[in-house]
Specification:
The chain is α+β, with helices and mostly antiparallel strands and 162 residues long. Helices cover 20% and strands 22% of the residues.
Length: 162
Amino acid sequence: MCLFVWVGSARGLTPHRAPPGDAPDPLLGYYSVQPVLPDAPIARHFAARAISCVGSHEGCGCGYNADTSRFDGFESMEDVLALMGALSTEEQGELLAGHRSRERLRDLIVEASRWGDVEVYACWSGDEEEPATETREVDADHFTRLLQPLAEGVKYLIRQTA
């Protein structure tokens, strides 16, 4: 089962799709930005008129939330970076790939917020018709500060920047 991340904005995000058969790119930080049709079930959750599905380096939204079980009790990227030397090369690569994905998501949000408020919603595949359980107002940096910035069924509101 995959977590999907949807971004609603006043203007659509620039579409991006890796060529068929290409693996997600951990260096790029995301795999795809795909516009969503206005009549798609997920659209009812957004006040914004342009909605995109944004995939992480893993191809879906799962890569935006780091597997913190191995970082027992750590929530922020800052805390884990202090322990990078204690992680295996593989763990470091996974952590940094996720962080790059979160940085790219933040950058997309910052760019979109120039034209209005931005909404971000994450849900599991098949739950697109389920309403948000709550709305949280956050800043764009929320998505890079935390190892797990997205909670299932929560809509995040990022206010327009000047």
